[in-house]
Amino acid sequence: MKKWKKPTKNFYMMPNDVFNLNLDPYEFMILSYMVRRINADSECWPSFKTMSKDLGISVSTLEDRVAKMCKRGLISVGKHTSNGKYRNNVYTIYSLENPEIYRDPDAVEDDELPLSVA
Question: Which end of the chain has fewer CB atoms at under 10 Å, N or C?
């Protein structure tokens, strides 16, 4: 049986601190997916439909978990436009060195961080 070897291509890196965030499995999967797709500006813009298909997660679950991740300060959601027209959400992924990401998402009041996921 072959032993596992560290890949030299077709891989991405996640910081070890991700395991200190107490993410549920969906949040971990979504964050990993976004990190895999980010550009040099730490942004990505997959649609909910694309993420749902690629991850095997319902759109409603994605919307719920993305909103929670926004509240924690892991990501932010904006609008991605192309040729002056709205296309998809644009997701900015923040460094795991930000202390606000470690707060309990259930302890944050809904109106404390007014964010739109739509």
Answer: N
Q: The tokens of 19 are what?
A: 């395991």
Buried b / exposed e along 16-46 (16+ C-beta atoms within 10 A):
eeeeebebeebbbbbbebbbebeeeeebbbb
Q: Give dist(CA 15, CA 39) in Å, integer.
A: 17
36 and 28 Cβ atoms separated by less than 8 Å: no
Given the DSSP bridges, would you call strands 85-93 and 43-44 parallel, antiparallel or unpaired?
antiparallel
Q: What share of the chain is helix, strand, coil (3-state, %, to 5)?
A: 40, 15, 45
Q: What is the mean pLDDT of residues 23-40?
A: 93
Residues 6+ apart with CB under 8 A from 17: 96, 97
Whether pTM > 0.70 for this model: the answer is yes
For 86, list phi and psi in degrees, rounded to 5. Answer: -65, 130
| Geometric angle at alpha carbon 18, from 99 and 2, rounded to 5° | 160
Structure tokens at 60: 């409603």
